[in-house]
């Protein structure tokens, strides 16, 4: 068997190259998201970079803005999943809710976050099949959402910090 040094030496260039090819920066990500919004006829929506954002991507339905954290990098292979999650579920819920006679549906109702996140996960899985790493991350986030019903920020953060990446724990 090769030593750890030999393994790293032999495989690191290929791993590094594959990661580089698969990654896109915030500007390209925003461009792809704008194309998707146009294709879906979300004409009043915009996509903007924000330096102070805990999540990589967030929907601000009240302002019709898809917020993208500045200086983030995304995997090209995950773009479809992210678009299904953010646009096809969260943004679409805002639009559908705004078309109802009761405008409160456009902002979501108390307790609707659990259902909406569940639908977003289903949309991702339906689109792209099962990604076990992403599924595990989402499982921990869903557990944290449930945990937040009884605990405060620090309890939820402590629950997540050992289970997911540091930036996800802050989300």
What does this structure look like?
The chain is mainly α and 171 residues long. 59% of the residues lie in helices and 12% in strands. The protein has seven helices and five strands; from the N terminus they run αβαββββααααα. A three-stranded mixed β-sheet has the order 2-4-3, covered by helices on one side. A hairpin with a 4-residue loop joins strand 3 and strand 4. Helix 3 crosses helix 4 and helix 5 runs antiparallel to helix 6. It starts with a helix and ends with a helix. The relative contact order is 0.09. The N terminus is likely disordered.
Topology, please?
Layout: H1 4-22, E1 23-25, H2 26-39, E2 46-50, E3 57-60, E4 65-69, E5 73-75, H3 79-98, H4 112-128, H5 132-148, H6 153-161, H7 166-170
Parallel strand pairs: 2-4
Antiparallel strand pairs: 1-5, 3-4
Helix pairs in contact: 3-4, 4-5, 5-6
Largest sheet: 3 strands, mixed
What are the segments in which pLDDT stays under 50 over at least 5 consecutive residues? 1-19
Q: What series of H and E elements makes up the topology?
A: HEHEEEEHHHHH
Mean pLDDT: 78
Structural class: mainly alpha
Give the spatial strand order of the biggest sheet. Answer: 2-4-3
Cα end-to-end separation: 41 Å
Helix content bin:
55-70%
The count of strands amounts to: 5
Number of helices: 7
Query: Gyration radius, to the nearest Å?
Result: 18 Å
* Proportion of residues in β-strands: 5-15%
Shape: globular
